[in-house]
């Protein structure tokens, strides 16, 4: 069956902003799908609200709609483009949900859009737990005991049969939102209440506990001819009870015999056929009782998923690419294996290495959030490491989490000092503490397993506490033993080559070995060099070397001498691009986007391109982006070994965010040529004193401030400046540890408790410019000193909210031309003075009508994709060419583009997943993703961005207002506009009085501690459509916090800054005047072209 | 540090690693298997007789061993090569660990070697003779023994692993059929599935049994089993037997069985460069167009064009290298596949072939 001929145009729906549970893996799948369908001549129409994606690059689809992923908006796209078919399986749960809504609303039928990949019935059967349970019964597969509850009464009845602990899973939610494990009735009621609320169908599943069982996943593919293959088996290191997204997972499965594996394989074939996913990939999760092998089906995702992205990178089999091909009619045996290029895709990959995925959490950003891991996913990113053994891949992965660790402990950063334990009593105390900890698993569980083993706890004992399989525990034990062997050698000289080799083979990094032997990383490296102990590079080839691989996708391992990399390339400049590592808050898909663009540009101009990265969710680790892909840690050691093999002409560090940037100086010192802006310039911009000198030199205004290395020094600086001051550690991204401090006592408290400060890690203290407006400017510069402004973005929230969390608008809508002109001049002066070649981002605060330069970052910023899409020029590509020596003039990019439309960027925040944390914006970045809204005017653009971020833009109803005194005058104006829009206003006493004084009708209500009914009651009764609540100051936080928490729980839009509230009202006004229209970026850019 | 071991290949390439399993020295043909599970089934599959099997999956032994997974009485391999031997056993089915099991069954094993390098070498140069040393024998002595070793070509290995006298396999309930298995090194799962799917009484007879002896058992069908090594020496005695059976009783062949059937029909076999050994080989069923993912273990293949006698139809081809995977005779009730529908280890996609066999038997009965 060849390609279908009855369809010509296909609509693909993306997954929208990055949120916990749905990250850039869908950029990877969507990008593959667009490419796969375009190469077959289909017209591809794409909808995705997330500009920071490669898939929304205008070249990837024929028509790209950066528009909200809502029924309303997608219908407009369908009406305009009239696609023949819709492929709903590439954009995660978001795309599936909106597709189901479109189908139910009759829109697909109305416009005669065929669903390809999975039809409505299949999606329903897989997603609806009762239909799925019935289907499993039909094919004689077991599911956990339990039933669906639609009310608390149902739930209490069901739990009688399942008993405690009981698992609660709400239907149709992301990453298990609203679910959990209840150990008692009280806890049960709380979780069920939240779960019913979180589920769009008010449905929760109550299940028997299978906590502690082994958990597996199989990735299945089926074509329209009913050929079915398994792409990959995955085994969870962490047992049932911890969400797969929060588990360390391993491929292939390690503890299943063939008999058991084939039972699971047979079950998967039956399931995909019974559910009726007619083509494409699905992911099926199982639990196995370790005591008797009883197999239970947990769930199925009838689409590409986070696991399928992992499985693709783990095996080399590109599931999304294949799924797209199968959806348009190809059979598996008609498509070539993209790695071997000779054998067909109809086969099952077999792998001769071990892949370990480790989640990356960001609890440090959410004080107060519940950090125990459970059935609700909380991690924000992941790394995937490849090694020949589990031990090697585990250590590689742990050294790559960007949390300062160099492997499984033994790196000088251990949580507890087992060796320092003075006597048996303190050891016993440690063991007790570890036992307590392991019963409630946390994100750093794996590190405590090592401590436990080193303290003499046994594998059976640990198995009992954690449910982790003894095989995995033994692997950890082997690492602990190896560590002891190395440590007992005493010194680097006394370690024999054999032991050194075996330690490297177990994934011990030079930093760990140095720590164990009391020496330096560099000395270990030299010792290895003398002994000739270097890694070799093996190919990921889908077939365990049975056939020759054509695609250069490599990982390192310590294994004899046979390396499969052909060596440095002759006759071409080799450019190495260092990726951005795991997604975390402050460093997300934007940087992967820049790395991909950098690589593509370098390839276009004829360079031999090499990518280093190990984030499996990304496009940059797709093996067709570069000439050679190294799925490797972004550590100094790892990068230098690759440099040894590739001997690059230059290395690009400015696209991957902080991860590669922090290696820049060390790499340069080791003789590596850093392309573009020199590391010294990066340092100059980061070093407060040097930066201030520079600013003075070029006459740029900066907020007064200083650098402190000691507490008293910090206090002296702050007292000199006058409070409030902005305090932050140098060299950070995403505002980690940044705070606005109002007094000396809080300053001291903060520095002591919250951040690390010493001679190596100075703290920056600046005068905080209150109520200033912030502006971001991105520019690109070439070797000749030419600088072109990429975009000027006016922030909507005032200074004090981290720039990564603020909404912004391009071009600015409310800035005087002279201020803009001054910023342009300042930016160009900085770029020239620093010798920037490539990208530079500058942040300004407009204070009392004058721009102050807050920060200059000579590197890619997270706004690059947004700006590129707003102006229709790929800035990262232009920058890459500059780094390779082309001038801006040669590239024809010498003038600032002034787009005719207005683009607004908004962020999404993960508070719903971080139960317990106050959903308040501040100087520390907390958002996980972003969306873009484009329109002719600001109001419409802002409203679209709001919808894109998944928030409601209320058309009418009740608005609650509670603002601080400073905001009251502006709030009066805002209230007047809302009243004009026929909103009913309610307010707490102070705000109500201000409104009444201005003769605006308003209903006063109680604060939470004043009596009832109070605001929280209104919220819970669904009587409020919008909350505007600006913080009153440090002391009354509690009351406001309960308001915000209730709003969050009941998904009522809650705005915490007046500026954002004003923008929202402007948006509501714009929508009340005219319904929003959709337009492709291609059309926008065409309209903007001179 | 563990005791050292090494593996020398015919062309001199040597791999050093750690000794496990039995402390000894054995020669054999070095091959690789890409299955990610099923080491015990592989070790006990008589088709691996006198081979030194390299597993491409790095961690081996994780789920231990259980008598239930034996495919014959004992391992027939001459050596086992792994990247890493598990120290612990983690599976409720296990009744022992692989390391001790290998020692007990006198299988020398080398771990800690670059199994991927071995695989790539064999892929490039072809399957070859080798010697595993786990008892400290000097490399010089091992080399001499390797040089003296004749290898598998032309050797009747099937004769060595076949049963010496008849035995019966049954299943619960009254059998509907009686099937005779001509044993060239049969795997237990073939007799098990034959018995279950009939249901049938299965009589396993030595591979050297004559047609008269077989027909005297009055079978409803005859299964030509899998088996090790070069099919030519086996065919010297078995091809004639098969020729006599064809037309008189329905015949199905698996692996060696297909090769013997092919030779009986006048065909030739040839040695594949490095064979098919694993559980992920795509085979297309030409009748249905469906791709089956199959378990395979063979170093020789039948050259379809060489079959001169009878009316043959190709039913299955390997999608990786287009070699013949199955054919059916149009003039007599007989068919064969080169791969392993009994799996064990491997996917169950082709298990329907046992049902096809019984369908054929029923058709013949009716006629």
Describe the protein in words:
The complex is a heterodimer of chains A (1090) and B (367). In chain A, α34 links the parallel β35 and β36. Chain A is globular. In chain A, the strands form seven sheets. In chain A, strands 14-13-10-11-12-15-16 form a seven-stranded antiparallel β-sheet, with helices on both faces. Chain A is an alpha/beta fold and 1090 residues long. Chain A is 37% helix and 19% strand. The mean pLDDT of chain A is 92. With 367 residues, chain B is α/β, with parallel strands linked by helices. Chain B folds into two domains: 4-148, Carbamoyl-phosphate synthase small subunit, N-terminal domain (Glucose Oxidase, domain 1), CATH 3.50.30; 157-366, Rossmann fold (3-Layer(aba) Sandwich). Chain B is built from ten helices and 19 strands. Chain B has helices spanning 39-44, 98-104, 115-125, 139-148, 157-161, 188-197, 211-216, 231-245, 256-264, 352-366, and strands at 4-9, 14-21, 25-33, 51-55, 59-60, 79-81, 84-85, 108-111, 128-133, 167-169, 177-183, 200-206, 221-224, 251-254, 268-285, 291-303, 312-318, 324-329, 334-337. In chain B, the strands form three sheets. In chain B, strands 10-12-11-13-14-19-18-17-15-16 form a ten-stranded mixed β-sheet, sandwiched between helices. Chain B has a seven-stranded mixed barrel with strand order 1-2-8-6-4-3-9. In chain B, strands 5-7 form a two-stranded parallel ribbon. In chain B, α1 (39-44) links the parallel β3 and β4. In chain B, α8 packs across α9 (256-264). Chain B is globular and about 70 Å long. The mean pLDDT of chain B is 96. At the A-B interface, β11, α9 and α16 of A face α3 and β15 of B.
């Amino acid at each position: 069956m060849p390609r279908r001929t009855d369809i010509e145009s296909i609509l693909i729906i993306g997954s929208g902003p990055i949120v916990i549970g749905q990250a850039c893996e869908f950029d990877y799948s969507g990008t593959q799908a667009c490419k796969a369908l375009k190469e077959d001549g289909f017209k591809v129409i794409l909808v995705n609200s997330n500009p920071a994606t490669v898939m929304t690059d205008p070249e990837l689809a024929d028509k790209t709609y950066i528009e909200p992923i809502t029924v309303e908006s997608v219908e407009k796209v369908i009406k305009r483009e009239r696609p023949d078919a819709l492929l709903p399986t590439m954009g995660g749960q978001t795309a599936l949900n909106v597709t189901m809504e479109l189908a139910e609303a009759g829109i697909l039928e109305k416009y005669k859009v065929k669903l390809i990949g999975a039809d409505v019935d299949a999606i329903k059967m897989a997603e609806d737990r009762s239909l799925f349970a019935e289907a499993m019964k039909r094919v004689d597969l077991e599911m956990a005991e339990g039933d669906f509850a639609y009310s608390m009464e149902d739930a209490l009845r069901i739990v009688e049969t399942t008993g405690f602990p009981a698992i609660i899973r709400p239907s149709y939610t992301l990453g298990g939102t609203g679910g959990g494990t209840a150990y008692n009735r009280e806890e049960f009621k709380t979780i069920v209440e939240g779960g019913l609320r979180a589920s769009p169908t008010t449905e929760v599943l109550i299940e028997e506990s299978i906590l502690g069982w082994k958990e597996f996943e199989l990735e299945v593919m089926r074509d329209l001819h009913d050929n079915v293959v398994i792409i990959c088996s995955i085994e969870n290191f962490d047992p049932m009870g911890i969400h797969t997204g929060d588990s360390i997972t391993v491929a292939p499965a390690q503890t299943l015999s063939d008999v058991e594996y084939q039972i699971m394989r047979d079950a998967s074939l039956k399931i995909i056929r019974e559910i009726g996913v007619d083509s494409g990939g699905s992911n099926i999760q199982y639990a196995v009782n370790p005591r008797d092998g009883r197999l239970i089906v947990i769930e199925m995702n009838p689409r590409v998923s986070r696991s399928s992205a992992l499985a693709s990178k783990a095996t080399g089999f590109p599931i999304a690419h294949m799924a797209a091909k199968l959806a348009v009619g190809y059979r598996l045996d008609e498509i070539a294996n993209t790695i071997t290029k000779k054998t067909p895709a109809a086969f099952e990959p077999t792998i001769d290495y071990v892949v370990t995925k480790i989640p990356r959490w960001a609890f440090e950003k959410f004080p107060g959030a519940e950090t125990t891991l459970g059935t609700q996913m909380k991690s924000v990113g992941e790394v995937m490491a490849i090694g020949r053994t589990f031990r090697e891949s585990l250590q590689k992965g742990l050294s790559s989490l960007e949390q300062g660790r160099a492997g499984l402990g033994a790196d000088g950063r251990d949580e507890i000092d087992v060796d320092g334990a003075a006597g048996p009593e303190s050891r016993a105390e440690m063991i007790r503490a570890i036992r307590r900890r392991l019963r409630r698993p946390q994100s750093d569980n794996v590190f405590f397993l090592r401590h436990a083993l080193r303290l003499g706890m046994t594998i059976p004992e640990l198995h009992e506490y954690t449910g982790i399989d003894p095989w995995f525990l033994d692997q950890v034990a082997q690492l602990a033993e190896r560590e002891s062997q190395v440590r007992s050698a005493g010194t680097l000289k006394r370690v024999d080559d054999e032991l050194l080799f075996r330690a490297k083979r177990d994934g011990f990094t030079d930093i760990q070995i140095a720590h164990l032997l009391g020496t330096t990383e560099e000395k270990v490296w030299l010792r290895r060099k003398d002994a000739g102990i270097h890694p070799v590079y093996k190919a990921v080839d889908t077939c365990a070397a049975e056939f020759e691989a054509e695609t250069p996708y490599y990982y390192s391992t310590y294994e004899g001498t046979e390396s499969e990399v052909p060596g440095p390339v002759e006759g071409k400049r080799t450019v190495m691009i260092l990726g951005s590592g795991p997604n975390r808050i402050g460093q997300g898909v934007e940087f992967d986007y820049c790395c991909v663009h950098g690589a593509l540009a370098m390839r276009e101009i004829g360079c031999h391109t090499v990518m280093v990265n190990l984030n499996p969710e990304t496009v940059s680790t797709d093996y067709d982006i570069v000439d050679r892909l190294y799925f490797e840690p972004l550590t100094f050691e790892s990068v230098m070994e690759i440099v040894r093999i590739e001997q690059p002409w230059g290395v690009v560090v400015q696209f991957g965010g902080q991860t590669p940037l922090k290696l820049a100086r060390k790499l340069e010192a080791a003789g590596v040529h850093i392309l573009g802006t020199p590391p010294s310039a990066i340092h100059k911009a980061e070093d407060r004193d040097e930066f201030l000198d520079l600013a003075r030199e070029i006459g740029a205004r900066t907020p007064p401030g200083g650098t402190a290395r000691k507490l008293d020094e910090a206090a002296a600086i702050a007292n000199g400046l006058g409070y409030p001051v902005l305090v932050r550690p140098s060299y950070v991204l995403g505002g980690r540890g940044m705070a606005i401090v109002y007094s000396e006592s809080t300053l001291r408290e903060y520095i002591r408790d919250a951040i690390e400060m010493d001679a190596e890690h100075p703290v920056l203290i600046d005068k905080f410019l209150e109520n200033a407006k912030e502006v971001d400017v991105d520019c690109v510069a070439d070797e000749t000193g030419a600088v072109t402004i990429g975009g000027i973005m006016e922030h909507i929230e005032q200074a004090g909210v981290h720039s990564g969390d603020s909404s912004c608008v391009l071009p600015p809508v409310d800035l005087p031309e002279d201020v803009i002109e001054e910023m342009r001049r300042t930016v160009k002066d900085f770029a020239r003075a620093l010798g920037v070649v490539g990208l530079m981002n500058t942040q300004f605060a407009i204070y009392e009508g004058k721009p102050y330069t807050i920060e200059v970052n000579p590197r890619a910023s997270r706004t690059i994709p947004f700006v590129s899409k707003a102006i229709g020029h790929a800035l990262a590509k232009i920058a890459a060419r500059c780094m390779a020596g082309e001038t801006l003039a040669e590239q024809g990019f010498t003038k600032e583009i002034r787009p005719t439309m207005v683009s607004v960027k908004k962020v999404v925040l993960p508070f719903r997943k971080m139960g317990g944390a106050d959903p308040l914006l501040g100087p520390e970045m907390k958002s996980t993703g972003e969306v873009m809204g484009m329109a002719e005017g600001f109001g419409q653009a802002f409203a679209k961005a709001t919808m894109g971020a998944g928030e409601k833009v209320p058309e009418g109803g009740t608005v609650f207002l509670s603002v601080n005194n400073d905001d009251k005058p502006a709030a009066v104006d805002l209230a007047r506009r809302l009243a004009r829009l026929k909103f009913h206003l309610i307010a707490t006493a102070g705000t109500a009085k201000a409104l009444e004084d201005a003769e605006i009708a308003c209903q006063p209500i109680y604060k939470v501690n004043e009596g009832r009914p109070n605001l929280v009651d209104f919220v819970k009764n669904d009587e409020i459509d919008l909350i505007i609540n600006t913080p009153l100051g440090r002391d009354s936080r509690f009351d406001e916090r309960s308001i915000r928490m209730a709003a969050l729980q009941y998904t009522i839009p809650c705005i915490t800054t007046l500026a954002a509230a004003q923008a929202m009202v402007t948006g509501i006004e714009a929508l009340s005047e005219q319904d929003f229209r959709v337009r492709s970026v291609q059309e926008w850019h065409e309209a903007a072209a001179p | 540090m563990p005791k050292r071991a090494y593996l020398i290949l015919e062309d001199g390439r040597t791999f050093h690693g750690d000794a496990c399993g039995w402390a000894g020295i054995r020669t054999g043909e070095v091959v690789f298997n890409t299955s990610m599970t099923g080491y015990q089934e592989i070790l006990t599959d008589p088709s691996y007789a006198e081979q030194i099997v390299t597993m491409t999956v790095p961690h081996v032994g994780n789920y231990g061993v259980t008598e239930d997974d034996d495919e014959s009485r004992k391992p027939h391999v001459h050596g086992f090569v792994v990247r890493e031997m598990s120290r612990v056993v983690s599976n409720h089915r296990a009744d022992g660990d692989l390391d001790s099991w290998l020692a007990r069954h006198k299988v020398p094993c080398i771990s800690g070697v670059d199994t991927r390098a071995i695989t790539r070498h064999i892929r490039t140069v072809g399957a070859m003779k080798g010697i595993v040393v786990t008892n400290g024998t000097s490399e010089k002595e091992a080399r001499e023994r390797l040089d003296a070793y004749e290898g598998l070509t032309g050797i009747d290995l099937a004769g060595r692993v076949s049963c010496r006298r008849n035995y019966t396999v049954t299943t619960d309930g009254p059998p509907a059929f009686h099937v005779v298995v001509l044993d060239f090194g049969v795997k237990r799962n073939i007799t098990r599935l034959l018995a279950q799917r009939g249901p049938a009484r299965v009589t396993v007879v030595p591979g050297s049994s004559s047609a008269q002896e077989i027909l005297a058992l009055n079978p409803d069908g005859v299964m030509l089993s899998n088996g090790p090594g070069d099919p030519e020496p086996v065919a010297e005695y078995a091809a004639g037997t098969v020729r006599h059976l064809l037309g008189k009783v329905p015949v199905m062949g698996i692996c060696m069985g297909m090769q013997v059937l092919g030779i009986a029909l006048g065909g030739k076999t040839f040695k594949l460069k490095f064979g098919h050994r694993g559980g992920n080989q795509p085979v297309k069923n030409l009748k249905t167009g469906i791709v089956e993912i199959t378990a395979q273990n063979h170093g020789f293949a039948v050259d379809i064009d060489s079959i001169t006698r009878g009316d043959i139809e190709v039913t299955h081809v390997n999608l990786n290298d287009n070699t013949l995977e199955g054919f059916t005779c149009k003039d007599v009730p007989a068919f064969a596949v080169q791969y392993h529908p009994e799996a064990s280890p491997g996917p169950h996609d082709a298990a329907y072939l046992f049902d096809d066999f019984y369908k054929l038997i029923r058709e013949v009965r009716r006629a």
